[in-house]
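Z., the sequence and structure:
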Amino acid sequence: MTKNHNVEDSDLFPPFRTLCRICGVEVETILYRTHIESLHPEYVEWSRLWGKWPKFIVGSLAAFVILDLVYVRSLWHNFGDIAVACTFATFFLWIGQYARKMRAFRDTWRKDHPVPDRVSGSRGEVGHTS
């Protein structure tokens, strides 16, 4: 008397979905990379280059800490505070640059792919003249 449900057909396990940060489309998570690569190749190229920055930042901060521990602390006792301030400033500048670039990608996408509501005016009908 019990029904056999296929896991793929069941509502118990809906697919995980991700919202595209550029065009706002909801995509199944396993297809997100395909979506990004096919519709937003300029973002893929930028994010590949962007991914190199964390290594540079972490390396620079590690050098800063080593310099502090080995040499500068004996000369200047406030250097640790400056290192912490530089770390936070670098982090916030990095996040701010990311947010500005994502906004630029979204604005470019919206300019290239206008929604009919924005094109035609208040009624939202394409080709409607009052």
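The two ends are 61 Å apart (CA to CA). The mean pLDDT is 77.

Let me know what you think.
H.
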